[in-house]
Amino acid sequence: MTYLAGDTVWYLRGDGTWTKATIRLVHAHHSPASYTIVLDGTAIERNTEANRLRRFHQPQGTAEEQVASALALENAAASSKHARKQLLSGNMQAVLLGVASDSRSTAVQMAALHAVLNLVNDGGMAMALPSSDQLSRATSTLTADLVPVQVLNVLQGRLSRAKQLGGAALSWPVMRGITLDEEEAWGDDLPANWFSWRKLWRFTGPGFLMSIAYIDPGNLEGDLQAGAKGGYTLCWLLLYSTAMGFLLQMLAAKLGVVTGKHLAQHCREEYPPVPRYALWVMTEIAVIGSDIQEVIGSAIAISLLTRGAVPLYAGVLITAVDTFVFLFIERLGVRRLEALFGTLIAIMAAAFGVMYHLAHVPTGQVIEGVLIPRLPRQDLQIAVAMVGSVIMPHNIYLHSALVHSRKLRTSNNAHKKAALAYYGMESALALLISVFINICVLSVFAKGFYGKVEEEIGLENAGQYLGQTFGSLMTYIWAIGLLAAGQSSTMTGTYTGQFVMSGFLDLHVAPWQRIGITRTVAIAPTLLVALLSGSQLDALNQWLNVLQSIQLPFALIPVLAMTSSERVMGKAFANSRGIWVAAWAIAACVLSINMWLLFEFASQSMPASVWAYAGVILAVLLYTAFIAYLAVGPERVRAMREGYGIRRASSGVDDKHIPGEAASAQQPLLAHPQEDGT
């Protein structure tokens, strides 16, 4: 929104009094932050005008004058963070919502809603946002009969974004200005000059947060196991499995960008109550399992850094509360939080890079391991475990929501394509850094322990072996990197839990409450194992890796089904035939690997009993049937039942699609992909 000549505003004089004025002239300079406004012959710079908003309170005048004043003041506040807070902390939103609900003028209603949604989308202050119910009531009178369809679609898209931010202090802070230029009138295709380094930098952040799941303590344990048992042979597998993960992560990002909703929200809309709640429980189990691994890694790192002065159980208790520190940083803004995560990733890269250098790893053998795929029979189980640990189920839910931390134009296909391109670039860079970190860890343990150590090596005793082989300095470097991995993974797990709970249940819980719940559940088994038998932490970690393998289909299948559906994505963004085949081939490969790993683990750990095997077979059949249901989708299952004469009451699931896209209500999730999809 920009100032327009003839706009009526309430202007705050230097003496603290308000006066009604009309904008006579708008003159834009080359810099968008320095254009001037002339009010009744007095020129006022935009940046100095914003400073006068600090004492802003209740607007005055008629409904039309209030709306015009709000639009102008909101725009002026763009250059002053303090002024923006004043707008959010005052009663401006209540006034605008009242105008939107009560005014008899449709034009005034639309203007008021534009103003309040500007504040909601740009403010990033969750505690001051109106609730979803307020916004829904305010838009209930705006229908296609009164408002042009294009305008209504824009309002509905912005309302959806506001709903994601509204509620009881649940949001990822939204940065003002992290957007493609509003004035760029692109069509459906990207113009030749669409790329901008400045915009790429502004979109950088979500991909790095997503990449943390690729370098969490569970992955580090997989790396050291692969290096100690298989040498440099499996370096190529790290690169290939991360590339597969990149494709799946970009499908999750595409779902979030195109539809304006994350994966958990789509699952709530697409699946009936019983499978929806089952899916939510499975996803929560995956989040808690990941949180336990992060607690284990952080506790081991603290014990190593203190030379055992802080025992493992005490380290577990310390990690129970340190996450609350991140909440204070979050309140400072999303950029500062992303900078913190970037710093932790840099610490990991530096620590493990120094380890690589000090260990005198033969780089030629590492390059050979990366470029030449080899898989000896004795390394098959290690390879399966490595691939199974790379793609984490909760990370797919997380990435589909993280892309909403940037304000996007959802009404223009070219802008969506540009946003996806920027997200793809920064995600690729982030995952390349994760590959570097993982290869460094694998190579150090291959150099020091391959063919030399018979005892099992895990996170718990890795520091001890590194100290004995390379010196005590290596122990501390390893501990620093491990602590950074555990702490960075902790906060992303907290956000995943928030998105999952709000998406599946439409239940908004404050971040500190969410941390309290998940940490209590995660710490109980970890603390018990640490107190009774600290040597069993690695065994617990292995069980958790199997748990993640079991939970993976409950994220993988829904995201593939949603992004393959024209009804959900629209024809322009549904997966093309090539992407459809590649994604489902990867999914089949990963799921087969994980099932094989599960059977191997069960055969080694289960008692040799007929009842035990019968129970496993029954569980596998139910598990497979549920996965098949998620893949086929409720519409097609319903059609199959009716085709066989099996009818029952409707599940109440609405057929939803994004505004502005024609779609068939009967089209199933796994509709045949189009050749020209994206």
Automatic annotation (TrEMBL):
The chain crosses the membrane at residues 236-257, 310-329, 341-360, 380-398, 419-445, 465-485, 579-599, 611-632. It is a multi-pass membrane protein. One of its GO terms (cellular component) is plasma membrane. Belongs to the NRAMP (TC 2.A.55) family. HAMAP family: NRAMP. InterPro entries: NRAMP_fam. It comes from [Myrmecia] bisecta. Pfam families: Nramp. One of its GO terms (biological process) is iron ion transmembrane transport. Residues 651-678 are annotated as: Disordered. This is Uncharacterized protein. GO terms for molecular function: cadmium ion transmembrane transporter activity; manganese ion transmembrane transporter activity.
